[in-house]
Amino acid sequence: MIKYVFIEEKIIPLSTMIETCFQMNQSRTIEVCNILLNVFSDQGVREYVEAQINLVWDKLESDIGKFLPFFKAFHMVRPTQTLLLLQEYIEQEAYHPFDARTLPFKDDQRGKSVSDDILQILGSFENHSELPSALDLLLLYFKKRPDLFEQFYSVYAERFEVSLDSPRLGYFTQSAVVKKLCEGVNTTPENANLLALFVWVASHFLKLDVSKAEGGRHNTVSIYTLTIPPDPPVLEYRKMLWSQLYQIYQRGNGQAEIEQILYKYSMPHYGVDTGLDVVKAEFEEVLKFFSLFHTENLFHCVIAARIKQVAKHIDYCALDILAPFLNSEKYRIYSALVSHRSEDYSEGYEKGVQRHKERVCKLVEGFTPQDIDCLLQVCIESAQTFDKEERELGAGLGYVFEAIQDQQQLYLYLTDAYMRADTPYQIYAGQILERLFKIRPVLEVKKFIAQYKYNQQNVWLWSFFSLMPEQQVSAHWVAELLQYLDTPDVEIKASPYRRIDSLRKYEIVEPKIIVKALRTISEHYEEAPFIFSLYVYWILNHSNQQEADETLREFSNELPLLEEIYLKGISYSNHEDFDGVLLYAIISVDTSFLYRYLDCLITAQGDHFRVYDHYDTTRLLKIWDAEQYIDLADGVFDYCYSKREELTYWSYWSPVKMMLHHEASHQEIIVKQDLWMQHTIERYGHDKDRMCLLFTAIEELSCERRRKAVEKFLSLNANPDVFERLPLEPPHWGGTGSMIPYMQERIEYLRSLLPLVSGIKYLKHKQRIEQEIDCWKERIRSEEVRELLESWYH
After folding, report:
1. At CA 548, angle to CA 545 and CA 554, rounded to 5?
2. CB atoms within 10 A of CB 556
3. Residue 706 has pLDDT above 60, yes or no
């Protein structure tokens, strides 16, 4: 039809359609032009369409307001003029200073969304004959706008990376990109921003595969992975990248980033053959970097160990250049501390732990304080460079403390040095404190662990108080403990959870120590919510209802304190009391707490729509386990309704919707929910506001359950004005693939309501349903046309 109207019969001049419709619906106009240009493989059609676009171009060019959006959409019709216009704009652009070195580098960096018009246009020249000129302009623009660094990276990494068309085109785009970037770096080696961009792009281009996601027909997405082949053009541009990276590193630039590239080189391909042909071809380029590395640098040694593993997979044996790194003292220590998972645990976990411990014991044989200092330096370097999440050496370092625990003076030196080093890898303080209590008096232990300021001092002090031998407890230490709790470390970011019941030993001096401790902790919630969460975790979370009931009994005389802790706890972390057993226990003895919980839930939502939050929903579903579930559900419904004047619409009905959540409901709960819905309609069937709230809350339920609710309502209230306000179906719809089946489901549901509205008193009700059915039919017709056009285009 499109070809017939605009090409064959020319009923409407195509240029007129483009000019007129582009102002009203840009996307549809572009879609029609793309169909004509791409679907009909006819050179004559293509030339005609381009000529018509050019007519509109010439007409709009003098009107900047109309021309700019048109130019952005159709710039590839006149590529040369497009580049000239961009060149003129770029040359007039002011310089925007920025230091790209302030951005964190990640070898798996995801591209940022490109919003800059010039970058979007230049990025569209991939695989185009004018790409070299576009790349020149891209570098010229980068000199002016380094502040758009992440968007520039996105253009290079996402628009110019290897694609399905690359082999057919001889990797034209990738080769051109690398060549231009290398030329730019060689021309201005002092440009730190350009060096950073080159390193980022090189990191992406040197991967051995590329994962792509592309939109397809009928709202589908195709995800695929391309393995980089050892084709000559590929090997050539990769060699250029490695060579340029070597020169950059040699000059002392981008070294940390380049080391990261080498650290992750080829790692995803262990044990598989794909991509290794490329590795074999370029491996000597990689080995060259070790002539610039230093054996006293732990990271360089670890990179050497990883590269040795890569060499093993490609059967490369000439590794003399790596030997000094692998035999260095720092790497010897590191290798003993780190867990060699594939080797250590090949025969199970217990065997693996045993092997690891034996390796550490052998390492520390004959250790001196100087050796301790060297070991901790290895840990510090590891944590500050390649293991910033501090995962690799924690177990091994813990085994060091265990291995020398009988050497009292060396153990004290290790502990002292460990605190001075700011506790790298955050070894469990309990194992250290338990040993210190055995070899030093309690007062000396306290002075010992408090002599320095270090990151984990608050954690160590908690271990001191919680692990103190019961026979050492005194009024002095009770006072010290309460003082400690009264001065929380607001800067601490990580710590194990803290069992408050470990303080029961102090009850011999202070019977209400648990209550006093919790009150003190709760008083500091606003300034130190993280610390608060550490203490209350084991109070709020239980594996079953019996445990929660036991907690309730323990707080039988302090129920307000438990309720205060509960509300603060879930306000800080919505995951607490994840299955609602403690909430159920509390409301079983204090029903009014349910309303305070609802206030907390609604407040926590703020401006965020959180109807489907799993934890909120699971907690509220617990009311259906109660014998008085009708009364509790009534309470939730009425309380939320009472809030309608002071809250936004969705804020006050969302708890009701959570209470009726369908996906989380079991059959026995569904039966109770349906009974309550029938009860509520009987109770409030003539209250239009409450009925709107109820039907809004149940709009996600199954068609059959909603139909029963409609049937019950109509049996009690035939007022068409109230019925007109009731939401009969969800306000949103969608899915994957064709949308037509989803639309048809809406029609079938609405048709199922028609038997409920027979008779003259339901004529307006019936009219509303029929109108909605007609609306969905029209949407289906529009969707059929859209899908047909889309199938032609793709």
Report:
1. 145
2. 9
3. yes
